[in-house]
Specification:
The structure is a homodimer of 400-residue chains. With 400 residues, the first copy, chain A, is of the alpha/beta class. Chain A has a domain of 239 residues: Rossmann fold (3-Layer(aba) Sandwich). In chain A, 37% of the residues lie in helices and 18% in strands. In chain A, the strands form 4 sheets. Chain A has a 7-stranded parallel beta sheet, sandwiched between helices. Chain A has a 3-stranded mixed beta sheet with strand order 9-11-13. A two-stranded antiparallel ribbon of chain A has the order 6-7. In chain A, β1, α1 and β2 form a beta-alpha-beta unit. In chain A, α1 crosses α9, α8 packs parallel to α10 and α10 packs across α12. In chain A, 56% of the residues are buried. The mean pLDDT of chain A is 96. At the A-B interface, α6, β6, β7 and α7 of A face α6, β6, β7 and α7 of B.
Chain lengths: 400, 400
């Protein structure tokens, strides 16, 4: 199958491209290296040393004999995207090509506007290009479980049947995103539903949970194929932060009370879910939503799990509660459906001490590269100006 | 009260600015003349001859002795908007400053992207400027009843209490916008709710129905104060189109079966609703939604009402059903709540033959100015390329 992987140089995009190439698909990676630029901006880095996209593709060819094509450009640039779709006529587009960090979007007005513009316009351009040149193409788009927020009722998969004043309808599930980034994904979902309705496109929105893990069957074939590991306060997840903090002897910093519950999944399950969506495409006119996670955890529970794993290596990690830099409920009901991918055959990898220990070993291997200044939260939701990196100069007249 | 009226040179913005100035408020009109530019682009015009903003303000001062201040600039330009909010410190911002035509947003990719970028970025910039410089300011933002689409359950005012699997929560009402324009308003609503939650802003989202009528107590004081009357296929409403068609002897063109039901209100009620929202502001942290319409009609019913009004002037208008250029349900349930503004004291003007006849007289006064070529639908929802005006050259390679 001819597949474009948008954002195919990123944390999940690259392993997905490898995985689909290994399965025999004709894969083209599309990227503009925005993620690498944000490292430059923030003074951050991947703890795992990642190679250039060109080196990655050469290494993959040497190892597997398979070619991954590359197209470098910005989805917001229609003069790049439209001829790309017209000339490649993809059967599937897997769309990871968005700014994916909530804290990055909350740095200040400029970063908020950038995130929404980049994500919304890129996806709008894509919807038009598909409608014009490849209307039968299946769009597999990465959304986020964060679109739903933390409602006091069960979270369903994209839609909910509501009985109201004696009538009934199945409607898009109400969304309560908690950052400009999460809101951008809600905007995308709204736009995709409209495009499927008016043009008969086919789309699957993968509302993904928090992904953990670094290694996949393909990335471990050669060190040149490894993917990113982010642990900084802007792009790193809480779990990665805890693992690095344990290894370098810092306390594990839980934001607020730590009762924040979210859905999680193993990076290998991300690949499996994307593949299941591709092999079982949406119908023409259908905008399908899958909740893509395998287990629910709260932040305090994750910290305790890391504490336990660290003990296996003789590390006694402390847990410290910080004032929460985010605006979010710290104790709340959370029960989200995730049966649609299981029904398609997903065999989940559960978060176990084994996985935590293997990632902790990887962190220990690279512990000399850890930059402790990157770990603490850099972005406060309540402020309209946040320094984007430790070297930033506060804007003159920053009032909050 | 210090009030900014964003988009204060437009169809509703200008009468609102006049009305608030007449009530003794200190009014500043903010506009970038985008609406006048779109006329230039489309070859369209207001049937009523409108004056420049500068002439309008001079005339108003001559007639009322009151000053309306003017600030010319683009809300998407933060270097304009931020110092404006900082220097004027408004107590209320009334935000009409968006691209408001569904067909305009559906012309092609460029117009879709422009609409979403213009509306979403302008409002995001505004939210940041208010949070930074005037956090107690009440934002009164124009939304649209079109955010809800046509669900098979009653439409509530912004939020709905859902009972689901034995639990209950009040959540944002599910949205099903039918155009990129309507979607942009949904995006705005999502962003405003987030801003109120994280920064404690106060906002009222006025989900307005279709407005009819041209004259208000202030605009009729002098012909130089009149506001726009749009009848073209892009910016005109169905009712205005029918009135003009009757006057020039064309059949009244109903899109599809004509069972499309929407909420409507008189332009004088728009002014009253905005004023009620201003005088009864939202609380800090509250994102309040009012459904702003007074009556529901379907399109076929409107055509018949115009047919009846035309008969008073000896005109026998025919009704013709066109293939619907939009993608929408043509027969559907529609029952929307609108009690919150009534509870604040709104005294609605109902659509009666009297109103239709007075607008028809206005059209007859200007019938020599009518350009029949503008009246027919120019934009088809199913196409990704539509000529924006009768003189447009179709893009090379336009495939659908």
């Amino acid at each position: 199958m001819r597949i474009l992987v948008l954002g195919g140089d990123g944390y999940l995009g690259w392993p997905t491209a490898l995985h689909l190439s290994a399965r025999g698909h004709d894969v083209t990676v599309v990227d503009n290296f925005a993620r690498r630029n944000w490292d430059d901006e923030l003074g951050s880095h991947s703890l795992t040393p990642i190679r250039s996209l060109q080196e990655r593709v050469v290494a993959w060819h040497a190892i597997s004999g398979r070619s991954i094509h590359v197209a470098i450009g910005d989805l917001c640039d229609a003069t790049f995207l439209e001829p790309l779709i017209r000339s490649t006529l993809p059967e599937t587009v897997v769309h990871f090509g968005e700014q994916r960090s909530a804290p990055y979007s909350m740095i200040d007005r400029r970063h908020a506007v950038f995130t929404q513009q980049n994500n919304v316009v890129g996806t709008l351009n894509l919807l038009y290009a598909i409608a014009e040149h490849a209307p039968d193409c299946h769009l597999v788009k990465l959304g986020t479980m964060g679109e739903y927020g933390t409602p006091n009722i069960d979270i369903e998969e994209g839609y909910i049947t509501i009985e109201h004043r004696g009538r009934r309808d199945t409607l898009p599930y109400p969304k309560q995103p908690g950052s400009w980034y999460h809101a951008s994904k809600v905007h995308d979902s709204t736009n995709m539903l409209l495009a499927c309705r008016i043009w008969g496109l086919r789309a699957t929105d993968l509302n993904q949970g928090v992904v953990y893990g670094v290694e996949t069957p393909e990335t471990t074939l050669d060190e040149r194929l490894c993917t990113r590991f982010d642990y900084d306060g802007v792009f790193g997840t809480a779990l990665n932060r805890f693992l690095v903090q344990a290894v370098v002897g810092m306390p594990l910093t839980v934001y607020g009370r730590g009762g924040q519950t979210r859905g999680f999944l193993d990076i290998r399950d991300t690949l499996a879910c994307v593949e299941l969506a591709i092999l079982n495409p949406a119908e023409r006119g259908e905008m399908r939503v899958f909740n893509q996670f395998t287990e629910q955890f709260n932040v305090a529970g994750l910290a305790e799990a890391v504490q336990g794993a660290a003990r296996q290596f003789g590390i006694e990690a402390q847990i410290e509660h910080l004032p929460n830099p985010r605006v979010e409920r710290e104790e709340h009901y959370y029960q989200a459906a995730n049966t649609r991918l299981l029904d398609l055959g997903l065999q989940p990898h559960m978060l176990s001490d084994t996985l935590l220990e293997s990632v902790m070993q990887l962190v220990m291997r690279h512990r000399d590269l850890v930059r402790p200044a990157l770990i603490m939260p850099a972005v406060n939701w309540r402020k309209t100006h946040n320094p984007a990196s430790v070297s930033d100069i506060a804007p003159v007249g920053a009032s909050s």
